[in-house]
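User: Here's a protein and a ligand (molybdenum atom). What would the complex look like?
Assistant: Let me lay out the input and then the predicted complex.
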Amino acid sequence: MRPQGAAALAGIVAVGVAIAVGELAAGLVAAIPSPVDAIGQTLIPRFPGSVTSWAIDTFGVANRAVLTSGIVLVALLIGAYAGTAGRRHLATPVLLFGGFAALGVLTSQGQPGAAVVPVTLGLGVAAAAGLVLLRWILARVDEDAARALADARDTQEPGTSSSTAPSTDGTVVTVPRRTVVATAGVAALGAVVAGSFGRWVLGGGVTAEPSELSLPRPQSSLPPVTPAVDASGRIEGLSPILTPTDRFFRIDTALSVPRVDPSTWSLRVSGMVDRPLELSLEDLLAEPMSEIDATIACVSNPVGGDLIGTARWLGTPLADLLDRAGVQDAATQIVGRSVDGWTAGFPTELAFDGRDAIVAIAMNGEPLPARHGFPARLIVPGLFGYVSATKWLQEIELTTWEGFDAYWVPRGWAKEGPVKTGARIDVPRLGERLPAGEVVVAGVAWAPIRGIRGVEVRVDDGPFQPAELIEPLSDQTWVQWTATVAVPQGDRSLQVRAIDGDGVVQPQGPRPPAPDGAEGWHRRSIRVGD
Ligand SMILES: Nc1nc2c(c(=O)[nH]1)N[C@H]1C(S)=C(S)[C@@H](COP(=O)(O)O)O[C@H]1N2
Ligand SMILES: [Mo]
């Protein structure tokens, strides 16, 4: 291996180690946000809306991972440069590593819960670890190169011309691979293990706070979900009527899950109200609680997609809090603001029109997990998440409709986000081979808060036939449906459409998710017979 190559490798590994130490520190110390995420979070709002939308369309839920990988990749490339430059002058890597640490410290200051001293210490240690490792490997590389050069001079006898002898300008001097590769390998492995552990913790792997909370009882409880109201026990592959929390979709702009300290957290009701409120978590838990079943959906959910789920939420009615604060007549918009500065807004009247809008503190009988907004979030049945479902809620601000555009609006998404009527085929599964004859088709359909009046299925482009509806939990939730249809042999497709509670047939579309939600009748290809 040539010394320059070895030096570049050393630089890459050293940056990897520095990043890993930074992520590990972030995982272990709540006041240190992930440096990689901090840089990413600072970049995101600076991207034009078209770039953000493109990234979400192209990479879907993975867009976060793509951004963080990109940042790490660029850092590793700069590391390769730092390594080669560092053979001559250690000043270059010192500047680059120091610069990265400084960038991490600066960008972290916009992150929730960040404290300057721990961040500076953590990133200082991370940069120092990388530099010490780099210096050590570079010293070995130079020693080995010098020795190889000396050996080459000794063995080169006068008058012989050996094709294997290295030239004295050093260009083909080789370094014993073992030292560099072994050190680099061990360091890289350590970096991967430490970095992954840090990321795992940041991703919500350890969430001590939520489980410690004891939940208040609702004023009246909903009946338990029995097999009679959940057909998923009978039909394999059908979505359960309540989505288990660990299978619930997650969508947000947070690169790492905000970890809120329940002892210092508070919720404000502010803006155009006569009596602004501020509630600690204890205060909030003491409010009257209601239990509601509601389906929430993401505007980015494609036809047939799974960015939709139903949970039994526990929370205090939004209307009660607002009445207490005294909403002024001119306040036409309710804006939810999260601890990480994200916002969502919807018309004030929707908190008072009879739907069960709540400040939720629990889902499916457990305190909200960190991923889903611990300690509190808004749930407004019938509205897409991006206009309503603020997680890690910190402030409910009353303002005017014209006076404020929430996070996704300037990025090209519609200002109003009612959930569109939709239906999805869960069974049979994609590409499933089935015996000829009668085929059981099943799935879910939703039109919160209008409810579902009917669901119809058809084979290929044949006539639509009515499906059977399982008794819904409420008009705010999806319904399960099943149908048994005769399917002739061959490559076939099944298609579904829903009819909402007002009797309106779901539009055929197709339309993409942007700017206000996808439209289309979900179709599934199957193979029947041999
Ligand atoms: N703080 C915060 N809350 C947020 C978001 C976000 O980016 N930040 N995304 C919203 C969007 S777009 C959706 S679809 C829902 C998803 O909720 P879930 O992740 O609990 O399923 O959260 C909403 N709440
Ligand atoms: Mo969303």
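Summary: Residues 157-171 have pLDDT under 50 and may be disordered.
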